[in-house]
């Protein structure tokens, strides 16, 4: 049986890694953490934040509302208070549509 290399996923990510994912400053992630209850990274003994995949999804939701949709912090808080899952569902739907669009454009370009 051939050995198949499997990608090992990290359990925790540093604030720097999370900030890099969204191309923002770590200070913005810390600020959002203070403003939004859904961002609750653990802290290790040194006091460094340790973000889980769920924390990163919560940051992604806030990034979507504030940076992509243009909500104010207060507006984003109200959206999340009303229905966090509905916001995520719309976000996932938009991402799926973007992927389909990219695929169709690539297909069109390959036909010419």
From TrEMBL:
InterPro entries linked: DNA-bd_dom_put_sf (IPR009061), MerR-type_HTH_dom (IPR000551), MerR_fam (IPR047057)
Domain of life: Bacteria
A Pfam family hit: MerR_1
Alphabetically ordered keywords of this record: DNA-binding
Gene3D superfamilies: 1.10.1660.10
Limits of the HTH merR-type domain: 12-82
SUPFAM superfamilies: Putative DNA-binding domain
CDD domains the record matches: HTH_MlrA-like_sg2
UniProt name for this protein: MerR family transcriptional regulator
